[in-house]
Amino acid sequence: MSKIAGQQSFRALCSRLRRPLLSHRPHRTLRPFSSYPNPVNLFAVGSWEKAARSGEYVDVHDLNEITDLEVNNYDVPIADLNDQKLRTEISKVLGIDYLAEAAEDDARREVGAIDGYLYGDARRPMVPCVVCNGGKPYWVHFFVRAGAPVTYLSKRVCEVLDIRKDAITTATIAGCYHQVRMSPPTSHFAEINVLGADFCDNFKFTPWFRGKGRVTYIFEDRCDKVKKLFER
């Protein structure tokens, strides 16, 4: 009898965990960006299907412990990501052009969740966010890396958004006011944008891995239903 009761309790818990995230009913904090209505197109991810068939996992990150870190000297080899792939392959999957102009409302909208996917054999989490520096807002594709100490924008993005290359700038990312820096020009990730540990920690930006290469990042404090689950 206790075993049956335990199974019933487990199923009930799973239902509570799934229902808020899978619900298609409109909710104030779960509304998507108005200029990005389409879900991630995982049919365009040939690398994911290849990796899924082989069952292999290849990570080119250098995950060695870094001590006495200076953010301007932070570096990590990310050989499979560059500006061209952000503009082509990754934009195709995310369904939004890299550095496309976004709607004005999206620059101020505090979304509760952002859909992304795991790119390539290294399963790199990629998400699209609206970034604004007081002028026009633009779509920027980010690599989410909690191992990075701060958030970086590529030189190209800094030029488009008129962000100073030699200083810390406060911009909005997905409606969050946050400090950003230009990716170090001599680093191995100079052409890509990185959402670092500072952003993930400050805004409780938490991944929900949904299987088959899909990942949704949730702002816990913005999503009322998810927040209640974590408070239990």
TrEMBL record:
<protein>
    <submittedName>
        <fullName>Rhinocladiella mackenziei CBS 650.93 unplaced genomic scaffold supercont1.7, whole genome shotgun sequence</fullName>
    </submittedName>
</protein>
